[in-house]
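We modelled the chain as a single entity of 459 amino acids. Its sequence is:
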Amino acid sequence: MTTFNDKPVYTLTQVAQSIQSMIERTYKFPYYVQAEMVKLNFYPRSGHCFPELVEKDGTRVKTQMRAVIWNSDYERINDNFQRITGEPLKDGITVLCLATIQFSPQYGLSLFIQNIEPSFTLGEMARNKLQTIKRLKEEGVFDANKKRKMPLLPQRIAVISIETSKGYNDFKVTLQGDKNHYPFETELFPSLLQGEKAVVTMLEQLDRIEKRLNDFDCVAIIRGGGGDVGLTCYDQYELAHRVATFPLPILSGIGHSTNETVTESVSFANKITPTEVAYYLISKFSDFEAKVTDLQLTLAKTVRHMLERENACLARTEADFKLAAHKVISYENTQLMKLQQLLQLSGKQLIEVQKRNLDNFAASLRPSVTARLTAEKAALNNFNSTIYIYTKQKLSSAATDISHIEEKIQLLNPANILKRGFSITYHNGSPVLDADSLHPDDELETHFYHGTRQSVVRE
């Protein structure tokens, strides 16, 4: 054996073979190992899987080791895991695996996984779900979305789904096929709805919707079919927190009836299927319509009762009024008859007195009237003579004045004025007296002694 400084020198192969021999003697049986599978490293062509296993202290990796699942075991292990947990083997899950520990001088230390216990991972998933719920409640946001105010008639819906999804199609058909044809408006925000990348794409679409808050009344996250497979993404804290704190009410309908996810729990309303989400929205309209109909019936009934009461009251008032009026008329008729009798008696007496007074006055007035008439007749004769003379003088003077006026009128006759070289300009049939009253393009008519001419006003 080669030595150095009196110490033996070993080859790398010898060291590796020694380690291999020691591990084979020490680790003779399979062991249960708990670790986080950060990377699955499945190769579809060969069917082999080379997971990367780690143990962390918070975010720090304490231990890292390579593992192997041969194709002969992978299909069995994966099918059983998916059947129990509802999820396939994937990156980022904590597993409890039954493995043998082997060391190869060529490939190093490896865990050869023979089986994975789904129940352990299922427990870890449940624990993570409870931790998410606890964290949301400690932050005081678990019920935040449930406290959002849903519009009375939500008709503008942002839909997070896949266009080819049967659930999305059922959702649209249910809304559009409603017999009442309520005015729903939907806009699709395409997103993966299960698996590792679903959380990222759904968060991206929620960010897009939030930038257009005024365009929508609520959000619907809908997924049809697939059972419970791939639903662990809805228990992730990031997605659940985003849904819980989203400024619009979020309706969930991801197509399963067991094990409600955290995202469904924190949403404004959770319905099992997309169709039920559609019926929930339709019910908002139908319930409102039913309330309006009930109010119409109640209002009509109330008005009818009010009219009946008012008619009855009016009938009673009319009867009371007729009775009172009859009494008043009867009383006034009696008083009128009494007054008529009194007036007839007083009238006869007054007429007799006045007749006697009139006879006495006529007798005393007759001599005075005769003398006055004689005097007035003489005065009237004298006045007639005076009037005749005065009138004759006045008529002669007026005839002279009229003759002078006629001469002046002839002088002022427009024809005589025009004859002297003057003209008269008319606008709209009236003589123009002030040039400032005219405007550009006004039409004028000028009269001369012989003939007329048309003109237009210019600047």
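As a brief sanity check on the tokenised model: The mean pLDDT is 85. The two ends are 133 Å apart (CA to CA).
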